[in-house]
Amino acid sequence: MKRSLLVTLCVCASALPLLAQNPQDEAAVRARMAAYSDARNKRDAHAEALCYTEDGDFRSSAGPFVSGRSAIEKQLTVTDPTYHFNMEITRLRFLNPTTAIVDADVKTGTSRGEGVLVADYVLIKQGTEWLISAGRIATKPAPRPAVQ
To answer: Half-sphere exposure of residue 10, counting CA atoms within 13 Å on the CB side?
Structure first.
């Protein structure tokens, strides 16, 4: 009896992340990331910062760790009119009903060149709104050689 109860509990616990993901939340997370990407393409650092929580933080391989919307806005300010930012979500996973992780491939640059990056974002649900709590962007590593 104890063994079957333990098995049942383990199965239920492993299904919790699946229960956390519902179509409305997934759509809201994707919409938040699309709004962020759109603001980035428009070089609207204020709109980008509003995609973050008040105490959110951001770090890229090209800049320092910053925390808070005003610091994020300052860090993400771009003035080059040729700047572009293209994000492709490669994975979206819900850790629980109020926390999601988004992994993305990013191509960004200016007329002087383009970089290929990887990005990870942690989003949290505050009330009915999904906001970025943490953003990390780094240079995409070279592919590993095939194992023979």
So the answer is: 6
Give the whole-angstrom CA distance, residue 109 versus residue 84. Answer: 6
DSSP 111: T
Q: Which two tokens stand for residue 139?
A: 């240079």
Distances (CA, A) of 83 to 3, 26, 92, 98: 59, 29, 26, 33
* Apex 55 CA angle, 54 and 60, nearest 5: 110
Whether 67 has a pLDDT exceeding 70, the answer reads yes
d(CA 32, CA 29): 5
Q: Looking at the whole model, is its pTM more than 0.70?
A: yes
Residues 89-100 pLDDT 10s: 999 999 999 999
Comparing C-alpha atoms, which of 91, 93, 116 is closest to residue 103? 91
Question: Of 63, 67, 72, 45, nearest to 137 (Cα)?
Answer: 63
